[in-house]
């Protein structure tokens, strides 16, 4: 049994406070080894072959996403939605359908206001990719939720991924990877700040992969205990300079909205608001702010046209 599998088998018996302490210590030990490649990996800046530009020739794409891991996070979604709307932004919310009750009214409210709803695994127990048989069995259930929710996007809990197995899901895009994040349980980064296409198989179509390119909020503010958004700003500025996709994954579960005493696994919502304010003021008019499904549709159609033109030219 791998160390990851062992951890998820025993995780339910480890108190949450101990889990956080253990992960903080692991990151503290690893962080010094990645000073030259995290949060910025210079090798990830190259645009895909045949790349032209984002829509309206914007400098970069901005994609905001949220993984809702618990009922607490579920209950914070409407407040987070209203905060983003106040800044003129829209995002996607990925829910875990069999870990807590996902209110149909919340999904409808999000969509009514121009937000997207996706799936974040099935039950968030770390076992989705434990075996091919287990994945295929759960994929059937995931596909039922995708259909019932009219959702086209998926992100795996803990960023576990197998890009071949994910073909079993009826999706337009997956978002279970990253450009670089050595602190994740499965730390194999994709090495790009752009979307890319995962080719299909004879029996299954391909899909667009959307790696996150800004560090996760939980990593920065809970595990590393950063006290400002300096790392977010540094990475964002670098992505903008290279015309990439600034895709952020945050969690309403860990946002403290009320300026109350912070729990061990919380951070002030002000950090997220500071980022929205920074983007809106520093890069006004320079970004394509899009939902993940729109990025996937754009990328697939644009790169397909580029490939067809290349074949004609040849």
CATH architecture annotation: Alpha-Beta Barrel
Largest sheet: 5 strands, parallel
Strand content: 5-15%
CATH topology call: TIM Barrel
Uncertain residue ranges = 308-314
Q: What is the CATH class name?
A: Alpha Beta
Count of beta strands: 11
Count the DSSP helices: 9
The CATH superfamily turns out to be Glycoside hydrolase/deacetylase
Helix fraction? 25-40%
Structural class: alpha/beta
Brief overview, please?
This protein has helices at 3-10, 16-31, 71-86, 104-112, 132-149, 217-223, 230-241, 269-282, 292-313; strands at residues 60-68, 91-95, 116-119, 153-154, 173-174, 196-198, 207-209, 245-250, 255-256, 267-268, 287-289.
Question: Key terms for this structure?
Answer:
single chain; 314 residues; alpha/beta; TIM Barrel; four-stranded mixed sheet; 9 helices
Structure explained in plain terms:
Helix 3 links the parallel strand 1 (60-68) and strand 2 (91-95). It is globular, with a radius of gyration of 19 Å. The protein is of the alpha/beta class and 314 residues long. It has helices spanning 3-10, 16-31, 71-86, 104-112, 132-149, 217-223, 230-241, 269-282, 292-313; strands spanning 60-68, 91-95, 116-119, 153-154, 173-174, 196-198, 207-209, 245-250, 255-256, 267-268, 287-289. It is 39% helix and 13% strand. The termini are far apart. The longest helix has 22 residues, at 292-313. Strands 1, 2, 3, 8 and 11 form a five-stranded parallel beta sheet that branches. A four-stranded mixed beta sheet has the order 4-5-7-6, covered by helices on one side. It has a two-stranded parallel sheet with strand order 9-10. It has nine helices and eleven strands. The model is unreliable at 308-314 (pLDDT under 50).
